[in-house]
Amino acid sequence: MEEKLRILMQSENLTASRLAEILEVKPAAISHILSGRNKPSFELLCKIVNRFPQINPYWLLGDAEEMRNTNATIPTEANQVPTSGTLFDLSAEKSDNSDISQNSQISTTPQFGRSDIEKIIIIYHDQTFEELRPRKLG
Fold first, then answer.
1. Strand, helix or coil at 55?
2. How far apart are CA 121 and CA 131, in angstroms?
3. pTM of the predicted structure, to 2 decimals
């Protein structure tokens, strides 16, 4: 991971201290990763992915050969990876579909290009949940 971090810094023309500033972490955190002393935390990896959308996360985290993301977008609050907390910490956020009735039916027509949906889980503010499964036709 330290090698990929060095490559990222070189390609973006950044010093370790400037990278730390961009990622809003202490310079020692970057220094320890670059020296091999520490491995990056999940939180730090999320910050890198969010702050550098042009970097292919599959290159950063895995074995993809292409460093640059060919279809990079400017990060917005809606498409950023959460850097801390839990799924239930998002309870203050509102969804456009917040008033879906319990009697709504799931269509088996693939509206998103997928017909192999197994289940949809709805998580409520009180941390209860409901599973919805598509009806099988036939």
1. strand
2. 5
3. 0.51
Handedness of CA 37, 44, 50, 86 (dihedral sign): positive
**C-alpha span between 95 and 93 (Å, rounded):** 7
- Angle (CA) 41-44-48 rounded to 5° is 140
Tens of pLDDT along 20-79?
A: 999 999 999 999 999 999 999 989 999 998 999 998 888 888 877 888 877 655 555 555
pLDDT digits (tens, 9 = 90+) for 95-128: 444 444 444 454 444 455 566 777 788 887 777 7
Q: What angle do CA 130, 134, 135 make, to 5 degrees?
A: 125
Structural tokens at position 78? 């809606």
CA atoms within 13 A on the CB side of 79: 9
